[in-house]
Structures are given as C-alpha cells and as structure tokens.
Amino acid sequence: MTNPPTPLIRVSSIPFPDAYSLPDKPSASGPALEAFRQSGFVLGSDLALFEEGMNLQLKIVRDASSSRFRKHPYAALMGLWSRTFSALADGCALATRGSYGSCAPLVRSACEFIAAQHQLHAAEMELFIEWLATNFTPNVEHKAFEFGLGRYFAGGTLADDVKLRRVYRPASELGRPSFGATTLLIGPESNNRRLALTFADSSFHVGWAELTLGWLLALCERQLAVAVHAKGTFAIHDDTHAAYRAFAERVEQALSRTDRCSVEEIEEGQYKRYLAHNVRRAAGSAPKKILL
After folding, report:
1. Are 195 and 184 in contact (CB under 8 A)?
2. Is 0.85 surpassed by the pTM of this model?
3. pLDDT tens-digit profile of 56-82?
4. Residue 51 near residue 20, CB atoms below 8 Å
C-alpha cells in the first residue's frame, strides 16, 4: 500500500465564538413566541444542559487553538465539527420556536458529520490527506479553482454507534417526504375521522419539543465523545474529561425519563418501523403512542 501524497498547504488559525448562548426570544408575537416561552418553562433543564454542552465544545476548541495542534487531521475534524455545532445551534433555535419539522434534516446532517469525524480519526484519515494533497489548484478546462467534492460517508459508524443510530434513523425518516411522517409532523391531531393538517404552524407541542431537544442533547454528547477521544488531535485535559463524563451522565438521566417523548425502532415482519411514546400536545394532556 502506497502512502498518500503529503499536502503542502498549511492550516490557518480557526476563528470560533467566545461562548454559546441559548436562542433569543422572537421579536414578533404569535405562536412562535408562545412556543419559545413554553419551551423555557417545560424544558428549561434540557435547554440549560444543552447550553452547557455547547460551551464545553467551545472550551475544547479553545484549548486546541494554538499553532502546535494545527495539523491536517485537526483541519479534517474541525471542519466537520464546525458544521455539527452550527446544525445543533440552528436546530435548537428552530425547536424553541415551534418549527419541529425543520429540525429533522439538521439532526440527520449532524449525525453524519459526527460519524465522519469518528471514522476519519479512527481509520480513514488518509482519505482526507489524499484529497487535500490533490486539490486547491486551477482547473484549466473550466477556468475555475479546484476544490474537489471529496465525497465521504461514514456508514460504518452510523451503523455501529448505538447512541448515534438511535437518533439518525428516526430523524432521517421524519426528514423525508414520507406520507406518514409528513402527516404526523403537520397534522398530529389527525385520526380515522379527519385529517387535521396545518400550514407553517409553529404552535408549541410538548412531545415534539421533548423529542427534538432530546436528539440535540444526545448529539451534543456524541460530539464531545468524539472530541475527547481524538488523542493527539486536540488538547484534552483531565478537567475536560471529568466535565464530559459528568455531562454525559446528566444527558443519560434526562433522556431516560419514562415520561419523555421518544421514538423506538421496532421490527414488524421484514420491515423496520418506529414507535413514538408519550406523544402529547400539552404537558397535562394524556400521552399516546403512534406507530409509523
């Protein structure tokens, strides 16, 4: 096996935010503002835990920002990590404004970014190094600057990481134009007598809020797990390890609540289906199960 070519390109300093703050209150009144208020009231502890995890991510980024860490593997992981961080932040903003259906594609993308970081660091970094060494040149035929798409998909990690898979598969299904997923997201009150659809609705739904924020918490934990175990790429100190372990334990406690809305993958015959537990519009409503 031949070694990949060595890239000559250097890695510049990467700017990053000083801190992460939870989304601001919507400026206009209406359902989105009410969803924001209800999210803070019903799921305030989830939001506080999410904010803590996002800032722990930024601490690791800050600790690894010196020039001695700015090597090509660092660039490979940081590029994907940046996309993960933005997807999680945007997902939280949408969830707190009642735009639950728009969160699923962001969650699916974040899963893929996290999986790619792990798989690159664990076994396939030479693929990034080879791409880096063979691009960033002029393309004479098209008179363009060559970036090269560098297609990469970490399917093995998505299949093997149980915690990641539990989020990835249902989020992927809800993010697609399936009939049942579409009706469930925009017409959750539908039944065998009527289709009760809405259009661009941003009303608060405690079940979807719990489900979406639970996904975001799980992915924040998975991103931190990838970072703290990327030995030699990031500066991970003992206090960072301890903070991650404490965060992971609290995420597990939050997600294991028996009254929380969650989605379970089940098998029925030769098909995989998804059973949603504790689906309810308001905190005081009777929970129900929905099978997709």
Report:
1. no
2. yes
3. 999 999 998 887 788 999 899 999 999
4. yes
